[in-house]
Amino acid sequence: MTAHYPDGLTPEDITALQRAVDDELRSEGYPVPDWPDPDEPETEAA
């Protein structure tokens, strides 16, 4: 089944845009949390 994205943006596009916005906010001095890397496996807190 092919996903339908009515606005033409894929999840990868949205992630790239969010990273660009985060970089811009950081450069202006705003605190921006680090998002987890989706390619890294999650670790459980001890």
TrEMBL record:
Biased composition range(s): Acidic residues: 36-46
Domain of life: Bacteria
Region (Disordered): 24-46
Protein name: NADP-dependent isocitrate dehydrogenase
Species of provenance: Amycolatopsis rhizosphaerae
Upper taxonomic lineage: Bacteria, Bacillati, Actinomycetota, Actinomycetes, Pseudonocardiales
